[in-house]
Hints:
- This protein is α+β, with helices and mostly antiparallel strands.
- It has helices at about 5-10, 40-45, 60-75, 110-115, and strands spanning about 15, 25, 45-50, 80-90, 95-105, 120-125, 130-135, 145-150, 150-155.
- The chain has one domain.
- It contains four helices and nine strands.
Amino acid sequence: MDQNLLRSYLSTVYELASPEGTVRASLDGEIVADTTKLPPLLQSRFAILTAYNPRSMLLPRRVNDGRHQVMRDMLVLGCYRVEPCVGFEDEPDGEWREPAWLVHGVDRDEAIAFGRVFRQNTVVYAQNGRPEIIVTDPTLDDIGRTFVGNFRVRV
């Protein structure tokens, strides 16, 4: 995988809804020895999935919105708790924002399968306070190849 693309994935800031309020986090933090100090949401098992812009190909908003709704419907039919979230650049001139779904309790293999079906380059998967970026596009790398990150809570 291109190192610039990987850096951009690691530094993406996600706004995630939790019972304690909105959690803002990226995956470019320092190694966290004690994950129990992270917000409870970041200690749970979840994936961040999107259907927007398959393989980084910009699609019209209406098409992206339709694909994204289909993904949500499939996740809900699979009995997952799904909440909207957003990923964005944390740069002063950054304009990129992409809607995503926070999927609670999803299995790692199923998250990868959703990424493949919706032609995403990668998916974010987290468990026990340990996030990872998993490749789901075979043209980028081996499917399932993992890049480990560390949560950085943003304020």
